[in-house]
Design brief:
The protein is of the alpha/beta class. It folds into two domains: 276 residues, Nucleotidyltransferase, domain 5 (2-Layer Sandwich); 134 residues, 2-Layer Sandwich (Nucleotidyltransferase, domain 5). Helix content is 41%, strand content 21%. The chain has 19 helices and 24 strands. The strands form seven sheets. Strands 1, 2, 3, 5, 13, 14 and 15 form a seven-stranded mixed beta sheet that branches. A seven-stranded mixed beta sheet has the order 18-19-17-16-22-23-24. Strands 4-7 form a two-stranded antiparallel ribbon. A hairpin with a 3-residue loop joins β16 and β17. The N and C termini lie far apart (70 Å). The model has no long low-confidence stretch (mean pLDDT 95).
Length: 512
């Protein structure tokens, strides 16, 4: 070891399938990483729950593991940041014991409660304060569901926490949350960055049950002696606010200044744009949340069937590619990329609507369904493959258009998620957004994001943007190809006309 002491930070990313903890040095270099998985329970169709004890144990064990693996000494760790799956409901009783399993983000049981919220607060007013229509995924409707369906559990409840904030409580003994994750509860006044007394009164939720709200890089507490012993760290080591998973990913990709945005092509697709001015879409087509940079916000569009569309196509129609890929020792998606390149822009006049799971942005229509439009006898599998990739890109462009309509500029785009690693898909994004699309050299996203927040909280950097400039470096840059831009534009404009023409028919189909 060198004699001058190094400074390290820890990022804990509490995901749905597992918790991943990463130890970074002050330049964001990964020193050690450890992941522990845990189950999700689905007691009924549409239900999704997890046991908060699994999160707590995974956090303690993964922190311990990175400390053991790295050989870094406890006093060199200057801070911890927490990132987590958003919207989950954790309820504690007067003795701070968990009352019931957590109802998590993808649970769909709360449709009735969403109607109740809209009725009590008023549709327009709800969007003015919380920047979003009542959605089944958000926490407020889950709280009402427990009150309506499990009154004995609601009676016992004294504390309401989000998943990562429960882990924070286990680490520090503090009841604290921060603005980005709290934004997803539908109880926060998004423009004012504080709990909304009006919403809480109208929903009859006792404000004393909610945690104190901090900005993401602020220190929320220090490790208790007991937690420190379990983690192999020093008591009093600071824990900063941290961020919800998307806001943490934004910091981890350097999307912390106006004009910057990222596109994630995972199962669903996300377009996330940073803005220092609050702007809310009155139609509720996109989420506006507080972001992890103090006094800034982000606008987020979601397209449900992004990477899912390509996976669906792969699993149903690409067995030959799967077999060949196996023999060659490559990923089937690599061969699918190659095949898509054999079809021209516009896939020989074939368009695809990626609405396999209904749609959020910009249509907010659960009845929307996938469509191949223009199919003819000339089309081959490679055309269908290209059409799927283009269709997903058109739906992501729809998200960007909503941002631009709201006055949020998008001139610098990062690509993340599995789809972001495909150069073919990145080129489509660059051509359709008409701006450069980059990737970052770090694959740590949310964990790095909250590691950076911890570094700012510990005083290693003055601000989040300053830390990001020092730590995050763009890797591949795909520039738009000038002649492709107008070519794609023609197909995109036609794509935009297809959904409105079919909207009524989707509705009819849903009730057949």
């Amino acid at each position: 070891m060198e004699c001058n002491s190094m400074a390290y930070v820890i990022g804990v990313d509490l995901g749905t399938s597992g918790t991943k903890t990463v130890l970074f040095d002050e330049m964001g270099k990964v020193i050690a990483s450890h992941t522990i998985e845990y189950p999700m329970y689905q007691p009924k169709n549409g239900y999704a729950e997890q046991d908060p004890a699994d999160w707590r144990e995974a956090a303690f064990a993964t922190i311990r593991a990175v400390m053991d693996k790295s050989g870094v000494s406890a006093d060199e760790v200057k801070g911890i940041g927490l990132s987590g799956q958003m919207h989950g409901l954790v309820m504690l009783d007067k003795d701070c014991n968990v009352i019931r399993n957590s109802i998590i983000w993808c649970d769909q049981r709360t449709a009735k409660e969403c109607d109740e919220i809209t009725e009590r607060v008023g549709k327009e007013r709800l969007i003015e304060i919380t920047a979003n229509p009542a959605l089944t995924g958000f926490t407020a409707s889950k709280i009402l569901w427990v009150r309506n369906n499990e009154p004995e559990n609601y009676e016992k409840c004294r504390h309401i926490l989000l998943p990562k904030d429960y882990v924070r409580f286990c680490l520090t003994g503090e009841f604290a949350t921060e603005v980005s994750d709290a934004s997803g509860m539908q109880l926060l006044d998004i423009p004012k960055r504080q709990w909304s007394d009006e919403v809480l009164e109208k929903l009859e939720i006792d404000k004393s049950m909610l945690a104190k709200v901090y900005e993401s890089p602020e220190v929320t507490g220090g490790l208790t002696a007991e937690a420190a012993a379990r983690c192999g760290l020093k008591a009093g080591t600071i824990v900063v606010g941290g961020a919800g998973d998307n806001a943490a990913a934004a910091v981890g990709t350097g999307v912390v200044q106006d004009g910057r945005a990222f596109t994630t092509i995972g199962t669903s697709g996300v377009v996330f744009a940073h803005t220092s001015e609050i702007t809310i879409d009155k139609g509720g087509r996109v989420h506006t949340f507080c972001c992890a940079v103090p006094d800034c916000w982000h606008v987020m569009g979601v397209t449900q069937g992004a990477g899912l569309s390509l996976k669906w196509f792969r699993d149903n129609f690409c067995n030959a590619e799967k077999e060949t890929a196996k023999a060659m020792g490559v990923d089937p998606y690599y061969l699918m990329d190659k095949a898509a390149l054999e079809s021209p822009i516009g896939a020989n006049k074939l368009l695809y609507l990626p609405y396999l799971m209904g749609e959020r942005t910009p249509h907010l229509d659960p009845n929307a369904r996938g469509v191949f439009f223009g199919l003819s006898a000339i089309h081959e599998k490679r055309d269908m493959l290209r059409a799927v990739m283009e269709g997903v890109t058109y739906s992501l462009r729809d998200c960007v258009e909503v941002c631009r309509e709201m006055g949020v500029s998008v001139s610098d785009m990062m690509a993340c998620g599995g789809g972001g690693s495909s150069p073919v898909w990145r080129q489509m994004l660059a051509d359709l957004y008409d701006c450069p699309v980059k990737t970052v050299d770090s694959k740590e996203g949310p964990a790095l994001g909250v590691g950076i927040l911890a570094a700012v909280g510990a005083g290693m950097y003055k601000s989040v943007p300053e830390a990001c400039d020092a730590i995050i470096h763009p890797a591949n840059v795909q520039e738009p190809v000038a002649e492709n831009v107008p070519e794609y534009e023609k197909y995109y404009q036609l794509y935009r006309e297809i959904y409105p023409a079919l909207k009524e028919q989707f509705q009819k189909l849903s009730v057949l």
